[in-house]
Amino acid sequence: MSCDALAYCDMLQVLEACDVQSPFSFKATEMLKKLGSEEVSLEQLLQISTDAPLMPNILKVMSEFDVDPSLQEIWMSTCSPLNAQLVVPSDDLRTQIKLNIAHIVEQHYPHLVNRVADSIMRLLLDCAQDDPKIVTLFHFVGVFRGRSFVPFVENLGHDG
């Protein structure tokens, strides 16, 4: 087992041992959720790295992860001009997110497109990433896992 895997297991045990009645129970629960998301992303990355050739077909990878077509379009429109696949600059991704959510948000809240795009970026950059200037495909997919994209964006607009 690698050092990272051992550290992850240790963190998970400490968080699970937190008393439910402690003042930190909410924070511990949130951290457990984030760790769970990171674990799924790491498991998927490990599966790809062992099963795939040197350069995976990014559309095939996203379809295997059952990624919403809207999210696939955002990712592909960000990475294609950059000749990237698994990692993109966060500024470029924000631009594509804004372009792709504008038609959803503007129907009811035309002045909130930037705010909704910023909310999505905060969720993406809130992940346990070392460099906030980049976003990996796995973090991108992880943020939206289990959520329908259009209703999620509409809810962010309502919360705006």
TrEMBL record:
Matching InterPro entries: RIPOR3
Name this polypeptide is given: Negative elongation factor D
Species assigned in the record: Nippostrongylus brasiliensis (Rat hookworm)
